[in-house]
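Exercise 7. Given the encoded structure of a 317-residue chain, write a plausible sequence.
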């Protein structure tokens, strides 16, 4: 892509997402230059989407671009970080202008929406793959890690769980691309505003990418505890329950993955204040269990009986 490469970068990617107070120099030099806000640490994360593994050929390029960015922003949200900018490593089979046009438009819309400018990247030829590295800023000592939970802390999630899994089921069944569930799959909402508020309250946090049952296990292991999840309290969307029934909806809420909601722990003494502040800012949060002494993840029904899961969640290997 020798000569065309630079024209392509200028045309589709230079200035994408606008500027920011922190961006000194963006696309076009050997490196981008960023001034992190004083007193903050840099939070950095990367995610790759590969055609045939994470998405099927023929996906709408703008939706794909937005989703790739949103997955990364969800990781920033889970640390309580505010976006500073992102890098895009793009591997393309060909320089298809219609594809690039749709891709860059979708990307620009979300970059602007979340105030996260594109600051640089790399463009190579090969099988279609999209790698985004996002950078954020979090005040020193306030990052929401997975390791801070104590026994007795309550467990919460934002939003609703299982909708992405419902969207994939609909796609597999009849190829339907529309509807509320599909929107949740393609346009997951990075919970940046909730993450920012949770810096004051949460003892541990992560975003739910591989399924709740698996992901809460990461908080349990990192915090040296066990986690008890009350299945009857899992937040489910009306659309998911209407389409698949309560039992399947609960199963998918536990194991479905790709929800990109925040799962976090809060000491009981701070739980009331946290619920008030999050609700006052329009965020739905639901208490779904607690951290307890021991190891592993236990899912219990209304009677407190332990449930067995069909499958813990998604793992590549
Ligand atoms: P170098 O060879 O110095 O690494 P490149 O020739 O790869 O630089 O890229 C030139 C400029 O274009 C750099 O600023 C780089 O960050 C940017 N860039 C390359 N590809 C992309 C892309 N897909 N998206 C955004 N910026 C890109
Ligand atoms: Mg390069």
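Solution.
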């Amino acid at each position: 892509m020798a000569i065309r490469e630079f024209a392509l970068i200028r045309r589709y990617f230079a200035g994408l997402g606008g500027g920011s107070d922190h961006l000194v120099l963006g696309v076009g030099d050997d490196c981008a230059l960023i001034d992190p806000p004083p007193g903050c640490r840099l939070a950095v994360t990367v995610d790759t989407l590969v055609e045939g593994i994470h998405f099927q050929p023929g996906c709408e390029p703008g939706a794909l671009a937005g989703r790739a960015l949103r997955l990364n922003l969800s990781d920033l949200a889970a640390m309580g970080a505010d976006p500073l900018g992102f890098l895009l490593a793009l591997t393309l089979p060909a320089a298809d202008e219609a594809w690039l046009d749709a891709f860059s438009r979708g990307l620009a819309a979300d970059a602007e929406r979340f105030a996260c400018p594109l600051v640089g990247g790399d463009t190579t030829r090969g099988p279609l793959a999209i790698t985004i590295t996002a950078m954020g800023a979090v005040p020193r000592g306030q990052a929401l890690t997975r390791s801070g939970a104590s026994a007795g802390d309550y467990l919460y999630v934002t939003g609703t769980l299982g909708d992405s899994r419902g969207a994939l089921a609909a796609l597999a069944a009849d190829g339907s691309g529309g509807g509320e569930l599909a929107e949740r799959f393609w346009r997951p909402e990075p919970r940046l505003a909730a993450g920012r508020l949770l810096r004051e309250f949460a003892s541990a946090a992560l975003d739910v990418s591989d399924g709740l049952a698996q992901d809460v296990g990461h908080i349990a292991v990192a915090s040296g505890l066990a986690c008890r999840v009350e299945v009857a309290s899992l937040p489910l969307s009306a659309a998911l329950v209407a389409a698949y029934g309560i039992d399947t909806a609960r199963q998918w809420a536990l194991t479905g993955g790709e929800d990109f909601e925040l799962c976090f722990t809060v000491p009981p003494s701070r739980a009331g204040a946290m619920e008030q502040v999050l609700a006052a800012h329009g965020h739905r949060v639901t208490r779904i269990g607690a951290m307890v002494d021991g190891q592993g993840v236990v899912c219990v029904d209304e009677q407190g009986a332990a449930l067995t899961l069909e499958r813990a969640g998604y793992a590549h290997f």
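Remark. The CA atoms of residues 176 and 268 lie 43 Å apart. Students should compare their own answers with the one above.
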